[in-house]
Hints:
By secondary structure, the chain is an all-alpha fold. The protein has a single domain (3-275), classed as Rhopdopsin 7-helix transmembrane proteins. Helices cover 75% and strands 0% of the residues. It has helices spanning 3-10, 19-24, 30-54, 61-81, 86-98, 101-118, 127-151, 158-193, 201-228, 233-236, 238-254, 262-265, 270-275.
Amino acid sequence: xxxxxxxxxxxxxxxxxxxxxxxxxxxxxxxxxxxxxxxxxxxxxxxxxxxxxxxxxxxxxxxxxxxxxxxxxxxxxxxxxxxxxxxxxxxxxxxxxxxxxxxxxxxxxxxxxxxxxxxxxxxxxxxxxxxxxxxxxxxxxxxxxxxxxxxxxxxxxxxxxxxxxxxxxxxxxxxxxxxxxxxxxxxxxxxxxxxxxxxxxxxxxxxxxxxxxxxxxxxxxxxxxxxxxxxxxxxxxxxxxxxxxxxxxxxxxxxxxxxxxxxxxxxxxxxxxxxxxxxxx
Length: 281
């Protein structure tokens, strides 16, 4: 039998082929996927409660992102019971890999609002433009990841799709690395100026550090995973998905349940609100 023809059939709709096993080298563990779905779903509810109670509509991206990651793990369970369904497999990958972009966007917006509150002079980028600049970058890398994820379901374009996802993830990591540098420089500027007491806003800076550290761990893991390609150690060992993707991201957003940003920003001056796009907590 022609191997190429055989592989081509493996990616055809309706064939009795375990796509997950072909791509990952294993069948997903249902218990772990269900646990991840429950955790993300619970966090989505808790964060939505925070948004509604504080009227922080600008923060909706956080519970929405958490909800879609939860849905991704639900689909991961379904993909085990429908192993030949390319549609379920593709959407699962899209939600799990791409939805966390919303977590990065939330941190960008939070930073912009924090600097608007403390003082625009402490940022090398106008705080009113920080969120827009990084979110545009986030959207661009998201589209690359989404497009690449879709191509990975095609036998002929699978390698191309993987490379596109890798480029998207690498650019996302570089962008977020720059954001962390921006956060550090702002923190140093605030501490050295002594022009304004840090009060409660200092707590939010440390929350951003905490969240960003775990997000960056996940970024590096995903870049390394896709750089290794199919058959790579990171991709073929499911436990690493939960240790280096799920756990870091859960920690990165769980911190906002007790430390919701609106609690530390007080009431913005009118000019600060305008600088930040008119969004109110």
